[in-house]
Every structure is written in C-alpha cells, then in structure tokens.
Amino acid sequence: MLVLEAAVIARDHWSRLDARDRRELSRIVRKSHGRPDHLTKGERSELLRIVRLLDPITAGRRLLPFHGLVRRGRR
User: Fold this and answer.
1) What is the 8-class DSSP label of residue 71?
2) What residues does each domain of the chain span?
3) Counting CB atoms within 10 angstroms of each CB, which of 13, 55, 59, 74 has the fewest?
4) In the Cβ-directed half-sphere of 2, how many Cα atoms lie within 13 Å?
5) What is the pTM of this model?
C-alpha cells in the first residue's frame, strides 16, 4: 500500500511539469551524471527552477508515515 501511495504522490508532483520542463530536466540530469560541477551556471539555475516546480519538500512531507508529525530538535 505504501508503494502505491508513493507512486501516486510522485505522479502528482511529476505532472506539475509541462513537457518542455520534463525534457529539460532529463537532459540536464543525463548530462550531469549526478555531478553538479558538470553543469554550467545557467544549467544549474534551470535545474533549480524545475526542481522548485516539483516541490520536493511537500512531496517528502506527504510521504512521511505520520504526515509531518515527526518531532524536531532534541528530545
């Protein structure tokens, strides 16, 4: 059930991108091979713009089993 929930959340956030942004994100990630230093300054800023559209913080919170009720700071 958790895998299905994760897939639904991922699809929801991925659908926030239009086709051009999806292609550009794929191109940049392939080019970088996971290394930001393989990208130009413009490509890094474009990657950041696209990732902000995906809203990974909200996606992560939605994936938490307790929906953000995890304690913060020291106990």
Assistant:
1) -
2) 2-63
3) 74
4) 4
5) 0.73
Residue 25: how many other CB atoms lie within 10 Å:
19
- DSSP at 73: S
Q: Which tens digits make up the pLDDT trace of 6-19?
A: 889 889 999 999 99
Q: Supply the DSSP string of 11-40, one letter for each residue.
A: HHHHTTS-HHHHHHHHHHHHHHTT-GGGS-
Contact residues for 39 (Cβ-Cβ < 8 A; gap 6+): 28, 31, 32, 47
In whole angstroms, give the CA distance from residue 38 to residue 44.
9
Residue written as token pair 């699809």 = 11
3-state secondary structure 37-55: HHCCHHHHHHHHHHHHHHC
